[in-house]
Amino acid sequence: MNRKELAPESSPQAAYGAHLRKVREGFAWTQQEVADKVEYASSHMSAVETGRKSPTLRLSRRLDRAFGISERGESFERMWREMKRGSLLEGFPEYVGYEARAVELRLYEIGIIPGLLQTPEYAKVLADSAVRRGTITPEQGAERVQFLAERQAALARERPPMVFVTMDESCIRRNVGGRDVMDAQLESLVAFAELPNTLLQVAPFDIGERRPFNLPVYILTMPDRSLMSYAESQAQGHFEREGTSVISMLTEYHQLQAEALCQAASVAMIKQLRKGTL
Length: 278
Hints:
Layout: H1 12-26, H2 31-38, H3 42-49, H4 57-67, H5 76-84, H6 92-99, E1 104-109, H7 120-132, H8 138-154, E2 162-168, H9 169-173, H10 179-193, E3 198-203, E4 217-221, E5 227-232, E6 237-241, H11 244-259, H12 263-275
Parallel strand pairs: 1-2, 2-3
Antiparallel strand pairs: 1-4, 4-5, 5-6
Helix pairs in contact: 1-5, 2-3, 4-5, 5-6, 7-8, 10-12
């Protein structure tokens, strides 16, 4: 049997693969046994272990469950988040680690549809645009789209969280990807608003200075009712666990909801935009 020597110092991807091999061999499992437990092809697991393929968030979480190391410092999800720091804003990989376990999510976005509500086509247009501008590589663009799909899938669980979304009016008025992409995206927003665990509101332009946020804001409520927040600017993100600033941010979010359109009026605005009558 050929055994490829690993060079964990060569890249984060190689370090991940070396850690996977070390843990697997510690359990005396074969690659096929690991593949069966995480429901991936053995060839895929071999490629990840030897650094030829990048791991995903979904695979990392399955590995943590299979090896029973989710709560320990050397978890695969933690390594994956560390790898992503190169293509995601600071603090965001850490935020995502909690997002999938939150019981309530409160999202506010300006200019673009919030990621968790984006259709694959809309997300790809944004990623491709960043690639053309030279902000990210084509590989990072593809990873962003895949990463978003995994975040969305993580929320489709047996007991899904409550998701409160307040969007600035600019989110639905900004044309991204042309008529067909936008029409499908707006249709998806209407479907989202019909779910029993969601609340969708549009903050119209005319609330003016009463809008408390000038940057995207995400607030999580965890099962123990602790709060966490993530906010970002054009080039910087900041993740914060429960504290006075997070509580203050939650208060401002409630003030924003009071100023925003109710869900029925928000959905009506979206439908009018789809018809081209607004």
